[in-house]
Amino acid sequence: KILNHLTTIPEGFKPIGKVNRLLKNAKKLLAKNELDWGLGELLAYGSILLEERDVRMSGQDVKRGTFSHRHAIFRDANNYKELNRLHGIAPNQGKFRIFNSLLSEFGVLGFEFGYSLATPETLVIWEAQFGDFYNGAQVMVDQYIYAAESKWRRMSGLVVLLPHGYEGQGPEHSSGRLERFLQGCAEYNVTVANITSPANFFHAIRRQLARPFRKPLIVMSPKSLLRHPECISNIKDFETGNRFQEVIDDAQIDTKKAKKVRRLLLCSGKIYFDLLAKRREDNITDVAIVRIEQLYPLPEKQLERIFKKYSNAEIIWVQEEPANMGAWQHMIYNYCTKVPMKLISRKASASPATGFKKRHEKEQKEIIEKAFS
After folding, report:
1. Which of 98, 133, 176, 295 would be a feasible disulfide site paired with 57, CB 3.0-4.6 Å?
2. Cβ neighbourhood burial of 250 (10 Å; 0-12, 13-18, 19+)
3. What is the mean pLDDT of residues 216-224?
């Protein structure tokens, strides 16, 4: 019902040509029972609305999405009137409010945090244009989002989406500063995730209101993965009976094959797809790749099962970020006395990323090749 509504244009509304192409591609995916990130995200919001709960979203370019993946609002090519794609799914549904905000991370994130305190039954989301820009609201993160429950016993279910990933766009458009968010984690104050599948994002979003308590959710959200041909989920993965997966094991290696695995690559985020492509290209069968989708609270029981399964393997943490950034320090802090773990990453750096495309590609290639050498 929701997907049909999302891919149908009402009579009398004339969309621009790009919207027609968007809907055509969406219908092609649905014909194969598949959903990409944009559809999976809107499906999550639609499912919450059908529970008669509201969804509120703001940020500097959220109606379209910075990377043109969301298109929550269409505009009529003739009169420029807006069509909210999540209105009118059912007679009795929650309200979907979405606002392109002013260019103040500090002001807008602070407002949305306050809104989330006042409306715990509403899904409240703030999205940065790029994850790098959140530092304009660092005070709100440190003083309120991370410490409000400890200081004032105030819970918040605010979702913060920070587009993150190393794609050669330079030091101001590559990093949501994952390491800083992980450094502030303690006493189960927040959830920090780096999600790589539309279905898993769907379940993470729904979990925010499904739980009998509220915790802020910080997501290192994707950029290039929004259109990656393998970042697709089957429609069955969204159905009742499925849930958010904190850890995603290597589907190609069963328990029997695991005994022959010489190296276990642990990673989080889009680098998984680079590693997967390299393994496939070189026909490597003795290296397993496991994704950690939730970095805090760390899913220790799931990880213990992973380490037990690959008991003969050397364990390596692989990340795109420099050694002094990303999740490496967080993993070492939690596992230095439990399992031996090595690092493959960019070298420590004062700047999050290089501004030279060729240097970025060289660094990325070296990380991937070293992971399998």
Report:
1. 98
2. buried
3. 97
